[in-house]
Design the sequence.
């Protein structure tokens, strides 16, 4: 089976998976008691806006179809998907969800992509070095740092980065993605430079946990590979230690990391959502949190569905890359 046929079949098989996921996502948003109308009334009361009449609450339910059965609400949501219509964000004064995603999703994907690159670019070489210098002083030090990185959640690390940058480094490029004077302004050279100065903090905070975890996995994989008979055969042929470790061992040890790309993507996105709330980033993280609080089933359900689709696509990408990197793997569907 060729790679193109393999990709097409995997995509076709993913369609029913995405349909099931969409039903689950829509149902999860509606699990808490009440609905958007109840959340709206509670928010109005808590913010000093006064009580909301029952008549107005019923009008809200009727306007957004909240009084309809689950399957009718679900169909009303998904029927516009082929046209790029994901419903309206009830918590944002009826703004179409597609417009909100068009504004924030590209920046979210951009940050997550570079956080993944940051994690892999640092973790893979360090993990390989740590395995080839097992039980050395530097190996112990790197392992200790990795355990600390795994133990510290991304949002806590974001707070630490803020504290260090402000109180020790006297940096003003922390929080948000660009300075206040560039908000709402078109992209210029000055805004791009300012954006790049703000970018390291969220990338480090998001990627550091995956960096530590990937380093530990890579070290363990490499140690297992170095015990394989073909490594001993390569050494017996007179190859240098660097050639044995990097050309033969590393190529096999990296395969489990490639297969985990589909898992890394949603993990990084989940971390980004928490970090973005702490750093006040202009991404989908704060929107998702607010939509959950407001029980905005269209906005929250769409964001949750997009994360799930990224997981499906990430697994497809991982399978393709794994098959390319390891010629022993064939393009076959189970």
Sequence:
């Amino acid at each position: 089976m060729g790679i193109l046929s393999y990709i097409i079949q995997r995509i076709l098989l993913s369609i029913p998976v995405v349909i099931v996921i969409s039903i689950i996502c829509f149902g999860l948003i509606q699990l808490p008691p009440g609905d958007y109308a109840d959340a709206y009334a509670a928010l109005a009361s808590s913010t000093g806006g006064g009580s909301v009449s029952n008549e107005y609450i019923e009008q809200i339910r009727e306007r957004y179809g909240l009084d309809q059965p689950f399957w009718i609400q679900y169909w009303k949501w998904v029927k516009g998907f082929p046209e790029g219509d994901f419903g309206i964000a009830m918590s944002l004064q009826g703004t179409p969800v597609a417009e909100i995603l068009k504004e924030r999703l590209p920046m979210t994907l951009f940050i997550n992509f570079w956080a993944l690159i940051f994690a892999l670019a640092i973790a893979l070489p360090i993990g390989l070095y740590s395995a080839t210098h097992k039980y050395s002083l530097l190996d112990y030090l790197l392992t200790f740092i990795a355990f600390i990185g795994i133990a510290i959640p991304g949002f806590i690390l974001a707070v630490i980065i803020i504290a260090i940058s402000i109180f020790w480094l006297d940096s003003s490029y922390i929080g948000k993605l660009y300075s206040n004077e560039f908000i709402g302004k078109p992209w210029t050279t000055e805004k791009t430079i300012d954006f790049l100065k703000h970018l390291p903090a969220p990338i480090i905070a998001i990627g550091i946990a995956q960096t530590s975890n990937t380093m530990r996995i890579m070290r363990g994989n490499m140690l297992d590979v170095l015990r394989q008979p073909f490594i001993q055969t390569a050494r017996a042929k007179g190859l240098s230690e660097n050639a044995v470790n990097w050309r033969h061992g590393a190529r096999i040890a990296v395969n489990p990391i490639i297969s985990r790309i589909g898992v890394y993507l949603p993990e990084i996105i989940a971390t980004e959502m928490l970090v973005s709330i702490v750093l006040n980033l202009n991404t989908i993280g704060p929107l998702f949190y607010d939509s959950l609080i407001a029980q905005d089933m269209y906005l929250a359900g769409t964001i949750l569905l997009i994360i799930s689709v990224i997981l499906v696509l990430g697994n497809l990408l991982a399978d393709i890359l794994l098959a390319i990197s390891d010629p022993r793997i064939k393009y076959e569907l189970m």
In short: The longest strand covers residues 88-89. The chain is about 75% helix and 0% strand.
